[in-house]
Design a protein that fits this description.
The protein has one domain. The longest helix has 14 residues. The chain is α/β, with parallel strands linked by helices and 124 residues long. The protein is 37% helix and 14% strand. Strand 4, helix 4 and strand 5 form a beta-alpha-beta unit. Helix 1 crosses helix 4. The protein is globular. It has a five-stranded parallel beta sheet, sandwiched between helices.
């Protein structure tokens, strides 16, 4: 599964996951910088076009986009949600916990499309 990380995550998360041989890109990567500050619809469409999953903390806006696509019987990307409570951005250990949680998701059984709420690994 390919992941597209929304802008609230530092690019180092994508870099560390790529070092583990996962297909992960960030809106902060050179090729995707046009998505920095872009409307959520553009990020949603990019994840869909690239047949990837979107990782974001922005639950309300992306749930709304997902619901709209479902109501119109249109395809939508898989959405992986995190929260500042589960993976606090101000905590120095957050990057490692997020990388580990995404690594577990990416190495686990294949998951069908839909929405998922990512929890930090039990060991954290």
């Amino acid at each position: 599964m390919r992941l597209l990380l929304d802008e609230m995550y530092p690019s180092v998360v994508a870099e560390q996951l790529r070092a583990r041989e996962h297909d992960v890109v960030s809106v902060h990567d050179l090729r995707y910088r046009g998505l920095e500050g872009a409307p959520d619809e553009d990020i949603f469409a990019t994840a869909l076009a690239e047949e990837g999953a979107l990782v974001t903390e922005n639950v309300p806006d992306f749930r709304r986009l997902e619901a709209g696509a479902l109501a119109r019987s249109e395809p939508h990307p898989t959405l992986v949600f995190t929260s500042n409570r589960q993976v606090p951005r101000g905590d120095p250990g957050t990057t490692g916990r997020l990388v580990e949680a995404l690594h577990i998701l990416l190495t686990g059984p294949s998951t069908p499309g839909g929405s998922y709420f990512l929890k930090r690994p039990a060991s954290s």
